[in-house]
Structure formats: C-alpha cells, structure tokens
Amino acid sequence: MRVAPVGGTAVQDHVALAEIELCGELMIAASAADEDRLSLESIDEVLRVAEERARRREQN
Prior knowledge:
There is one protein chain. The chain is built from 3 helices and no strands. The chain has about 60 residues and is an all-alpha fold. It has a domain at about 35-60.
C-alpha cells in the first residue's frame, strides 16, 4: 500500500470516484424501490443514460 508523504498530494482517480458515485446512486435507488430489483429503465434513469446520449448527439 502506498501512502502519500506528509505534505504531499495524492493523485485522485477520477474514473474510480465517478464509478463509486454511480454505485452509490444505484444503491440508494434500489433501497427506495418497491420491487425486489430495479428495472433496466430505472437503472438507465438513475445513471442518466438518456441525458448522456442527448449530450453526445449535441456534440456531433
């Protein structure tokens, strides 16, 4: 295990942090859901898949 030296800065892995945030959002949605499992549509909504696709279309 590597530890940043005292007074130094640790490099953050932004991809890993984003994945952790998305997993947290999925867990919150799953705990609030009435059904046993989230539907694919619910997962897409939580992960904002439609918004990301629209943003990519606007960029192209």
